[in-house]
Amino acid sequence: IAHKALLEVIKIVKPRVKIANGDIFDGAALSRHDKFGWNKVPTPMEELHACQERLGEIEQAVPKGCELLFTVGNHDVRWERVLAKQADQFAGLFGLRLEHHFSRWDFTWSVFINAEGVDPVMVKHRIANGIHAGYSGTIKAGVTTVTGHTHQLDVKSWGDYRGRRWGVQTGSLSDLSSAAFEYTENSPTAACSGFAVLTFHEGRLAPPELCEVI
Predict the structure, then answer these.
(1) What is d(CA 76, CA 60) in angstroms, rounded to the nearest whole number?
(2) Residue 99's CB: how many other CB atoms inside 10 A?
């Protein structure tokens, strides 16, 4: 639902930049964690094709000239970590890097928006962990931060003598009731399906907006 909503919101706001903020590729079959019972997990190729399909839909929805950025998450690196460990002698071969399979997206660890402006914003998959990750991230960074690692969807405000900033957590586009999240054992969780929209006006960041699946 969150992904479908994102496609509709893209048509409305016509963004200049679309950032996929990490863990687009999960790598369940490549994880160092044991399988959860006898659940069938998708193969890396099945996951890859699903990611290509979903990101392809975003590519079709964004306006012409919209920049497409992919901030690499800790799950995304499972793809290359396993290949580098097991087939290091093939280094440099096309197709071994995850980014080779998403030609329209620029892969990066982070995106520093408005770096020299009044309201700089750091977008990366993770800075801090835990229930207060959004707050901790902006405190550590000293600027507004946008992260996705915890799957929480919230905005924590902070102010000091330099002004007001936010710690934004972007939730997840996934269906959190799916089998992929069965490891939670149906326990309460702060994870939430949705995404965030950031708007700048004359170089100033407006309060970040959240789109939440209810």
Answers:
(1) 23
(2) 15
pLDDT digits (tens, 9 = 90+) for 63-89: 999 999 999 999 999 999 998 888 888
The one-letter amino acid at 22: G
Neighbours of 60 (CB within 10 A): 9
Contact 175, 195 (CB under 8 A): no
pLDDT higher than 90, residue 9:
yes
pLDDT digits (tens, 9 = 90+) for 44-65: 999 999 999 999 999 999 999 9
Q: What is the pLDDT of residues 14-30, one digit of tens each?
A: 999 999 999 999 988 88
Q: Among 181, 196, 182, 76, which residue's Cα sits nearest to residue 146?
A: 196
C-alpha torsion angle, residues 140, 190, 70, 207 (rounded to 10): -60
